[in-house]
Write a structure and sequence with these properties.
The chain is an alpha/beta fold. It binds zinc ion (2 copies).
Amino acid sequence: MIFEQPRSPLRLVERERPTAGPGQALIRVRACGVCRTDLHLLDGEVAVPAPPRILGHQIVGTIEAIGAESPTAPAGEETAAELALGARVGVPWLGFTCGSCRYCRSGRENLCPRARFTGRDIDGGFADWTVADLRYCFPIPAGFSDIQAAPLLCAGLIGYRALRFCEGAHRIGLYGFGASAHILAQVIRHQQREVFAFTRAGDREAQELARSLGADWVGSSEQAPPVELEAAIIFAPLGPLMTSALRVIAPGGAVVSAGIHMSDIPSFPYSLLWMERSLRSVANLTRRDGHELLALAPQVPIKTHVSTYPLERVNEALDELRGGRLTGAAVVTIA
Ligand SMILES: [Zn+2]
Ligand SMILES: [Zn+2]
């Protein structure tokens, strides 16, 4: 299913099976999660630099071939032993980094200016086959089906990364209770912290899901929770939620935006930020985030709430996501 230009549905085409180059794996795709970023790409809010492109960056599949080892692979980046032929792997949004810039050298490869992203700069997983750099493939823990695992690879990862910036917070607000928040809520509860779930007013399905996952409080984004929060993560792409969250967090608290795109943040009085409150974004992921979350997932254990769509119906999944009609995560399955 290829992306050709913004605001046109993805189109089903037949292509030659790709081949794995040096240091790459040829992967038979089993499932691929649908992310709000796919929607931003499709709607032209985030550019696709060189269409046509296969979108999809929450890929689960099996390695069917491995290209020759890259002679230029930096030391310490050898392929993990578990990534052999037949292994079940996950491919995330981060598909390549330079390994030599100041971000890469300081554990912040998510900010690498030469980073390439799966399903934007590199063909992704809305296809029967894909090719990925072995260094950016994660082994999928046994006990997770392909469909269950797919949403961990971006929805889970961006939430997990956002949670790093809520260190020390016990009461955490999650604004927008979709694919990411429903995973992160389980992690937060597992860490014996409290979840405050904010949904669109009247979104009963999302509120039900939040309650079933153990949220300590559930309400609409306009509501004030009964107690002060210590951090908030914004998953909905709505700038005004940043200031809504600032109003309900305690001094020293953080408001973290986890999306790649957001509508404008309205101006607000400095008093909302005063007392060492902070407002920040998180971007992408590092491989460390991926390995940590996938190690944690079976311990929680994370259960993803998934609606599945066959590959050729991925446009329907994207429409449902745009219309706010999805509860939990959408995953495309490949027969
Ligand atoms: Zn770099
Ligand atoms: Zn994503």
